[in-house]
Write a structure and sequence with these properties.
Layout (H helix, E strand, L loop, with lengths): L4 E6 L2 E6 L2 E6 L10 H13 L6 E6 L24 H6 L2 H16 L7 E6 L2 E3 L1 H8 L2 E5 L3 E3 L14 H8 L1 H10 L3 E2 H7 L4 E3 L4 H14 L2 H14 L4 H19 L5
Parallel strand pairs: 3-4, 4-5, 5-7, 6-8, 7-10
Antiparallel strand pairs: 1-2, 2-3, 8-9
């Protein structure tokens, strides 16, 4: 696959693939890429539709904002066309509500797969679900005008789209609690200083920065990157000795592969 191919384009999500790089774009700038259950299903479908040749996935949003978060229509009695409102879901059985939230979370879970490296390219507002979507990715390039905020708590809710785990891992428990409990904005300088952002650039340089990073990620052999990502992502839950063991096992696999020795 050498040309830019459109794989999916529905419900505010477009997936295109060019060689080993896929781009997932949120395509509703008129609503600042506000999110809905239909968009979440489309994001999950994009993950399932990725060709096996893809090594890097770039996530971005059209317009001035990456994503302003959940579309507030979800909390109106009528909800979205063809969808139960969140208020109706809350009145239903607890098991059904849990299953529905788990389904929504699927849009946010596949970005950490070991066979890909995901990069969120974030400009303007990344609020609530938008912040959590950026956190779902492995890496984040942000514009100087970025504003991250976790506003769920101020609405009487909690962040439930998988964002709490990476947020605590990146900035620590105390800062994560303060960010979530106050709902304040985190701007570019703080995002870079605390590890939320890998790189801050002017807005007009986002595309070039994303291309450069994708190229750098593709420079190393795929299997080595896959093994390294698995090592690093598992390090948080392993002891030092367990990590040493995992390193030895991974390196053994790489050396046998380079020597042409089948396991």
């Amino acid at each position: 696959m050498t040309s830019l191919d459109s794989v999916l384009d529905k419900d505010g999500v477009r997936l295109t693939v060019e060689d080993a790089v896929a781009t997932v774009t949120l395509t509703n700038p008129a609503k600042r890429n506000a999110q809905s259950p239909a968009l979440w299903r489309a994001l999950a479908e994009a993950g399932r539709a990725l060709p096996g040749s893809v090594r890097v996935v770039v996530l971005r949003g059209e317009g001035k904002s990456f994503s302003a978060g959940l579309d507030r229509q979800a909390f109106t009695p009528e909800g979205f066309d063809g969808e139960p409102s969140f208020l109706d879901m809350a009145r239903g059985p607890e098991a059904e509500l849990d299953a529905t939230i788990a389904e929504y979370q699927e849009a946010f879970t596949w970005w950490r797969r070991n066979d890909i490296v995901s990069v969120a390219v974030v400009q303007g507002h990344a609020i609530g679900a938008g912040f959590q979507l950026a956190l779902a990715c492995d890496l984040r390039i942000v514009a100087e005008d970025v504003q991250f905020a976790m506003r769920e708590t101020s609405l009487g809710l909690v962040p439930d789209l998988t964002g709490t785990h990476p947020l605590v891992n990146l900035v620590g428990y105390a800062r994560a609690l303060e960010i979530c409990a106050t709902g304040r904005s985190v701007h570019a300088e703080e995002a870079e200083r605390t590890g939320l952002a890998n790189l801050v650039v002017p807005a007009d340089q986002l595309d070039a920065a994303a291309r450069d990073l994708a190229g750098a990620l593709l420079a190393a052999p795929r299997d080595a990157v896959v093994e390294t990502k698995a090592l690093l992502s598992g390090a948080v839950s392993r002891t030092y000795e367990e990590q040493r063991t995992a390193e030895r096992a991974a390196q053994g696999r790489r050396l046998r592969d380079l020597a042409g020795i089948a396991d």
